[in-house]
Amino acid sequence: PEENILQLYIFVEAVLMLLLLHVLVAIIWGAFYYLHPEGLPDFATAIYFSLASYTTIGYGDVLLSSSLQLVGAMEGVVGTFMFGLSVGLIVAILQRTSTYQKMAASD
Q1: What is the DSSP secondary-structure string of the chain?
Q2: Could you tell me which of 60, 52, 59, 61 has the C-alpha nearest to residue 30?
């Protein structure tokens, strides 16, 4: 039971840290869209667009100027890649904690 609690703690901590990392990256992209001379008019819209692009939802209700459209597409690619890395990391953590738990149980 104690090992299960530790495994759950490690898993939850990893997921929360990854979520924080994803939000931070989306905020950085949003700051770029807001601060760029041809960017978006306000910070809230820039963050909204960034989160929609980073998660590849892309509603299409907020559009970038033609000079920034390729950057917006790149954000979607980066977001897809980062989510893939996150899934891989979570799986690796689960495998490692499961292996340690099995080793402890066999002792």
Answers
A1: -HHHHHHHHHHHHHHHHHHHHHHHHHHHHHHHHHHSTTS-SSHHHHHHHHHHHHTT---SSS---TTTHHHHHHHHHHHHHHHHHHHHHHHHHHHHHHHHHHHHHH-
A2: 52
Alpha carbon distance 28, 35 (integer Å): 10
Cβ–Cβ under 8 Å, residues 79 and 52: no
Model confidence, pTM: 0.86
Q: Which pLDDT tens digit goes with each residue over 29-65?
A: 999 999 999 999 999 999 999 999 999 999 999 999 9
Give the type of residue at 60: G
d(CA 89, CA 1): 24
What tokens appear for 100 in the block? 């340690």
Tokens found for residue 26: 């989306």
Q: Could you give the CA distance from residue 57 to residue 55 in angstroms, rounded to a whole number? A: 6
